[in-house]
Q: What sequence folds into this?
């Protein structure tokens, strides 16, 4: 029987041998070298760096819980609701898996938005990180797509009518609106065909594209390093000895791990204390319930569209709103190319734009929930 | 066609007016003409068609009621909308501008018909199936025949002109179809229409009948269904009394009237011991317990041996009916209590976020059992009622257990959460210590 003091060296010897085996064949050490040398700047705003990692962690949780849900979920109008009900009531820890999946989806979208605004306000999106911003923005849109497609999958009343309203709005897009609506719904109306389609988007198409883009996003961060806020950069330039950094491994990673654990605790608490509701099964033949509202992350757009008059001059109000959001989204995606130099005067304008957008989104969301 | 040509001419004037080579004076004239012409042409075809002028309305619109009829009032009348004129009922010639000509005997002027003549006058068209088919093929044409069997019709035949004739219920010169919610005979308004006479104690004095029917109906479950819930199939005066053949149902026919809606209750009553007993006593079946106009929402207190129970009106302690009433009441109360208990625990579980929809579904079946038992009690056979309440009790016990299980599961989850959070805190503390060690190692290595 081996004594405990001998066990550690033996394990270490085994792992060393494995590393040597891998190194001999794939150049393992060369692969890990950049990570070993990677450092993270340390300053008073460093905690914003954790948001991207937390978003990634929540995405991984989504994938894992999503795979578990797939074991029981059935994507058809006749069985979807019952299968989710079965998961919630009969499957061991099914309630936990589904609640964590739903809560982490919402938290992921929240942290993705927070990450985007932090990057904007810390001017981390400027040259040379244009592509990082671009991939990040597409990832944010994909996260919204995940939310929209996943919301329908339990096939409950709220999801059914929210999808009906959401796809109707899509149908207002000029030229491609109608074909897009038919493509999304799989016909003129929201039916079982829509559910099957959304399921396909949710578990195959979107995860595939998202995984590739996350890889590209992380690769770009690894290649370009962490951005330092302009004010901090100037201070360090003036006083180089003040510059502080920490190794990515193990220091920053341990910090990030702490953040992940906190996120896990929050998720667990939400799932246990406020399990995600199932509602009642969708019935396409009953009228829409009064005061139907979309998920919170679409609320600001929904409320805006509600407030725009039916006609603004000769243009249809809803169409004008959709065009406005489309144009706004495009400008937002292209900010690194429109903003010019990191220290230029345009940055003041962009900061103002960011503050306005954030205030607008928050106030419209609150208004949307308070309005009847 | 003429309108199109005029419009084209207007556009042509406009185009020539803007022609670059036109002289300024010509241009002014052309544009002015076009401006005058185009709006008139644009809006000409949107103006509503003007109804044919009637000399009757010319004069009568300025008269006070009852001879005054305004053009607006007449336009709302279904007869006007179908193309009928004043002369259709009153005779005369509405095209003749002079009063003498319009109301001449030669032109068939009949003037204001006597009240006794009104049913027959309306029936001239309304009892003519071939004539009415062209306007509304599904409209009945037996109104006069029905009316003649009614209390109103019989009294009118004897010369009592105070009773209701067609125009008292349907109004006059502003008659709307019954399906129109503004019609005086729309189901929503029937009770009000009847009450105009039947709640007027002074008017009804000679007939020696009560005038509290409307007050009773207004407090009834039927009124609640009709007015509060907007259920137009709920009964109003005419549902039980008939409309054109309005008469109070006799003692023997009350059950038949109620059973047109309450089918199962009537079937069960027929096999109950009360059927023969009520017949022997000469009392009307349903209304003995439920009253007639003031039919309030029945509760379980209505049956049994309590103060509010109607059973004690006939049964006294010691007789088998008294014991049966008590047993039925107790069974119903027990199931109701069990369902409420289950409801409370399921509510609590739901508020805690637990998924109990399956138990809710089953609980609804338990409620159905209670409803069924409340219907079965019309057989007044305690064993039959017990069969239904027992079925409900089984369900209520099961759903109560499901609620308790959900609450236990909630507590288990909360304990699990507590343990998980403690584990996470321990890991966080460990990580924090590890980071401090790593940072102090780096500092000591660096210095």
A:
């Amino acid at each position: 029987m081996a004594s405990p003091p001998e066990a550690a060296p033996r394990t270490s010897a085994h792992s060393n041998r494995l590393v040597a085996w891998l190194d001999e064949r794939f150049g393992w050490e060369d692969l890990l070298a950049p990570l070993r040398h990677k450092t993270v700047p340390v300053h008073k705003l460093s905690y914003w760096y954790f948001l991207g990692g937390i978003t990634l962690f929540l995405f991984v949780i989504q994938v894992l819980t999503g795979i578990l849900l797939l074991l029981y979920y059935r994507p058809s109008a006749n069985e979807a609701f019952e299968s989710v009900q079965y998961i919630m009531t009969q499957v061991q820890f099914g309630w936990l898996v589904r609640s964590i999946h739903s809560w982490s989806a919402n938290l992921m979208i929240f942290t993705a938005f927070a990450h985007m605004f932090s990057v904007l306000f810390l001017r981390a999106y400027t040259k040379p990180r244009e592509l990082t911003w671009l991939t990040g923005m597409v990832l944010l849109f994909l996260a919204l797509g995940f939310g929209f497609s996943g919301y329908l999958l339990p096939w409950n009343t709220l999801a059914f009518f929210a999808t009906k309203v959401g796809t109707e709005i899509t149908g207002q897009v000029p030229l491609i609106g109608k074909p897009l609506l038919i493509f999304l719904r799989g016909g003129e109306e929201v039916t079982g065909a829509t559910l099957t389609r959304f399921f396909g988007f949710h578990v195959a198409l979107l995860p595939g594209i998202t995984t590739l883009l996350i890889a590209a996003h992380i690769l770009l961060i690894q290649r370009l390093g962490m951005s330092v806020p302009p004010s901090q950069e100037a201070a360090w330039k003036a006083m180089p000895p003040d510059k502080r950094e920490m190794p990515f491994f193990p220091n920053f990673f341990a910090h990030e791990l702490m953040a992940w654990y906190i996120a896990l605790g929050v998720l667990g608490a939400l799932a246990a204390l406020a399990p995600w509701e199932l509602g009642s099964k969708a019935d396409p033949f009953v009228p829409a319930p009064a005061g139907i509202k979309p998920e919170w992350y679409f609320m600001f757009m929904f409320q805006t569209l509600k407030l725009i008059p039916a006609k603004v001059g000769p243009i249809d109000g809803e169409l004008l709103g959709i065009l406005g959001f489309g144009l706004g989204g495009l400008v937002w995606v292209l900010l690194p190319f429109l903003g010019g130099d990191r220290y230029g005067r345009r940055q003041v304008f962009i900061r103002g734009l960011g503050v306005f957008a954030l205030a607008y989104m928050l106030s419209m969301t609150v208004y949307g929930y308070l309005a009847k | 066609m003429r309108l199109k040509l005029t419009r084209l001419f207007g556009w042509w004037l406009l185009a020539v007016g803007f022609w670059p080579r036109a002289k300024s004076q010509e241009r002014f004239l052309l544009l002015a003409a076009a401006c005058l012409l185009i709006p008139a042409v644009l809006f000409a075809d949107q103006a509503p068609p003007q109804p044919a002028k009637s000399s009757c309305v010319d004069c009568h619109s300025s008269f006070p009621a009852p001879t005054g009829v305004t053009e607006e009032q007449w336009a709302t009348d279904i007869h006007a909308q179908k193309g009928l004129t004043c002369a259709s009922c009153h005779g005369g010639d509405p095209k003749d501008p002079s009063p003498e000509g319009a109301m001449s005997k030669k032109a068939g002027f009949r003037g204001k018909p006597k009240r006794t003549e009104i049913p027959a006058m309306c029936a001239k068209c309304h009892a003519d199936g071939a004539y009415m088919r062209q306007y509304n093929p599904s409209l009945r044409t037996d109104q006069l025949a029905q009316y003649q069997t009614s209390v109103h019709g019989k009294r009118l035949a004897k010369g009592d002109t105070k009773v209701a004739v067609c125009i008292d219920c349907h109004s006059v010169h502003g008659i709307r179809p019954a399906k129109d919610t503004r019609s005086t005979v729309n189901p929503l308004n029937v009770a009000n229409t009847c009450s105009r006479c039947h709640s007027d104690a002074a008017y009804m004095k000679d007939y020696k009948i009560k005038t509290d029917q409307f007050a009773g109906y207004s407090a009834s479950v039927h009124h609640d269904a009709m007015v509060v819930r907007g259920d137009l199939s709920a009964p109003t005066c005419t549902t039980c009394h008939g409309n054109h053949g309005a008469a109070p149902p006799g003692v023997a026919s009350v059950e038949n009237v109620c059973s047109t809606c309450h089918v199962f209750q009537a079937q069960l009553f027929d096999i109950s011991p009360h059927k023969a007993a009520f017949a022997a006593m000469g009392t009307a079946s349903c209304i003995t317990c439920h009253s007639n106009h003031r039919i309030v929402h029945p509760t379980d207190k209505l049956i049994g041996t309590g103060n509010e129970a109607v059973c004690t009106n006939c049964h006294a302690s010691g007789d088998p009916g008294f014991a049966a009433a008590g047993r039925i009441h107790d069974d119903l109360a027990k199931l109701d209590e069990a369902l409420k208990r289950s409801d409370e625990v399921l509510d609590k579980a739901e508020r805690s976020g637990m998924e109990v929809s399956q138990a809710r579904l089953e609980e609804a079946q338990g409620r159905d059992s209670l409803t069924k038992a409340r219907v079965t009690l019309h057989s007044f056979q305690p064993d039959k009622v017990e069969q239904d309440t027992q079925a409900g009790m089984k369900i209520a016990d099961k759903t109560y257990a499901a609620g308790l299980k959900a609450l236990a599961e909630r507590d288990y989850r909360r304990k699990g959460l507590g343990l998980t959070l403690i584990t996470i805190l321990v890991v966080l503390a460990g990580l924090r210590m590890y980071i401090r060690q790593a940072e102090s190692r780096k500092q000591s290595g660096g210095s």
Remarks:
- The first strand of chain A starts at residue 39 and ends at 41.
- DSSP finds 15 helices and four strands in chain A.
